[in-house]
């Protein structure tokens, strides 16, 4: 088979193939269906780095026992406006899903709620979670800690993860605005992909093990990634760490083992979400302000709303299907049996 060969799958075909792979790897039915949905939707949104190409590796973590694919999350309410979802060593998404209605109930009662997901594997597309709250009409902010990859300014040893942060803003009659970004200049998956392909990095992305700037992806993986915006990005990563590991009592980025090592212990990471009902303060017409800002952005030639390319890709690929490397499709079929 030529490594350049590509195969196009319809969205339902891709979804079913991913579901079968997760199920065969050892996920219970509900988890397999949910994880397949998340990775397929990432592919449909044009986020290939977090899409179906990740499924074989993630299934490997389940098959090895590093991720508890059959775990049943435990949801509790430690306070009226606080929801705690213990993933029990599984994926964060099933724990999030199990706590979703309780979190909405807390927002309706209190106007604000905090959801903390603990003892979980790493996040994938964080915006998927906040978008669920925005679809329900609420403003949501979310963040997650991941294993250490970012060094402090002037340093050469990672102490914080690329700790992503996301915000979803509802719109009347339109998909929510979703902002989803890492605290680093670039997502670590980009470094990994370039290392595998033997491609150079862009300047300002990473340093080597001696703290010197590097364009060598493999040297960067042995060194550290740089925070977005210099000290500001490092500050954001630290704030995320406080809102996740410190709040949840989970492993810090520094304590969590690397995700790429299939035989490493479970990372036992955490996520946090703050969900608000702006109508309690700004009144029922608060989305008018959102549309005013959207109009100002759209009126400028060449400007684009954050997340707009993702929405465009979602609409297009839902009709045309997703085109994947043939080797990936074969691998997924092998896992799915």
Task: Explain the layout of strands and helices.
Layout: E1 6-9, H1 11-25, H2 29-44, H3 55-64, E2 74-79, E3 82-86, H4 92-110, E4 112-120, H5 127-135, E5 139-144, E6 165-171, E7 174-181, H6 188-197, E8 206-207, E9 213-214, H7 217-222, E10 224-225, H8 231-248, E11 269-276, H9 279-282, H10 287-298, H11 308-320, E12 322-325, H12 326-336
Parallel strand pairs: 3-4
Antiparallel strand pairs: 1-12, 2-3, 4-11, 5-6, 5-11, 6-7, 8-9, 8-10
Helix pairs in contact: 1-2, 1-3, 1-12
Describe this structure in words.
This protein is of the alpha+beta class. The protein has one domain: 2-Layer Sandwich (Ribosomal Protein S8, Chain: A, domain 1), CATH 3.30.1370.60. Helices cover 42% and strands 19% of the residues. It contains twelve helices and twelve strands. The chain has helices spanning 11-25, 29-44, 55-64, 92-110, 127-135, 188-197, 217-222, 231-248, 279-282, 287-298, 308-320, 326-336; strands spanning 6-9, 74-79, 82-86, 112-120, 139-144, 165-171, 174-181, 206-207, 213-214, 224-225, 269-276, 322-325. The strands form three sheets. The chain has a seven-stranded mixed sheet with strand order 2-3-4-11-5-6-7, sandwiched between helices. Strands 9-8-10 form a three-stranded antiparallel sheet. A hairpin with a 2-residue loop joins strand 6 and strand 7 (174-181). Helix 1 crosses helix 2 (29-44), helix 1 runs parallel beside helix 3 and helix 1 (11-25) crosses helix 12 (326-336). The longest helix has 19 residues, at 92-110. The two termini are 20 Å apart. The model has no long low-confidence stretch (mean pLDDT 94).
């Amino acid at each position: 088979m030529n490594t350049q060969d590509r195969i196009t799958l319809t969205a339902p075909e891709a979804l079913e193939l991913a579901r079968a792979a997760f199920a065969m790897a050892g996920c219970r039915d509900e988890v397999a269906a949910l994880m397949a949905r998340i990775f397929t939707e990432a592919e449909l949104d044009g986020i290939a780095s977090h899409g179906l190409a990740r499924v074989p590796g993630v299934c490997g973590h389940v098959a090895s026992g590093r991720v508890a694919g059959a775990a049943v999350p435990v949801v509790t309410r430690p306070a009226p406006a606080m929801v705690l979802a213990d993933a029990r060593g599984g994926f964060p998404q099933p724990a999030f899903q199990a706590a979703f209605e309780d979190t909405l109930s807390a927002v309706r009662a209190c106007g604000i709620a905090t959801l903390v997901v603990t003892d979980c594997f790493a996040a994938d597309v964080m915006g998927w979670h906040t978008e669920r709250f925005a679809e329900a009409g609420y403003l949501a902010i979310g963040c997650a800690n991941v294993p250490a990859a970012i060094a402090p300014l002037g340093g050469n040893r990672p102490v914080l993860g690329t700790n992503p942060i996301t915000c979803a803003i509802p719109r009347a009659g339109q998909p929510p605005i979703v902002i989803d970004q890492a605290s680093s200049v670039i997502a670590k998956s980009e470094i990994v992909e370039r290392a595998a392909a033997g491609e150079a990095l862009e300047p300002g992305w990473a340093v080597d093990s001696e703290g010197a700037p590097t364009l060598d992806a493999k040297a960067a993986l042995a060194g550290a990634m740089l925070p977005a915006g210099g000290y500001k990005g490092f500050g954001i990563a630290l704030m995320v760490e406080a809102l996740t590991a410190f709040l949840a009592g989970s492993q810090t980025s520094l304590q969590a083992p690397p995700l790429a090592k299939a035989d490493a212990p479970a990372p036992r990471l955490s996520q946090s979400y703050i969900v608000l009902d702006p109508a309690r303060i700004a009144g029922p017409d608060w989305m008018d302000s959102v549309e005013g800002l959207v109009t100002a952005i759209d009126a400028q030639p060449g400007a684009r709303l954050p997340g707009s390319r993702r929405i465009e890709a979602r609409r297009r690929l839902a009709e045309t299907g997703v085109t994947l490397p043939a080797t990936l499709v074969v691998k997924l079929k092998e896992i799915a049996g």
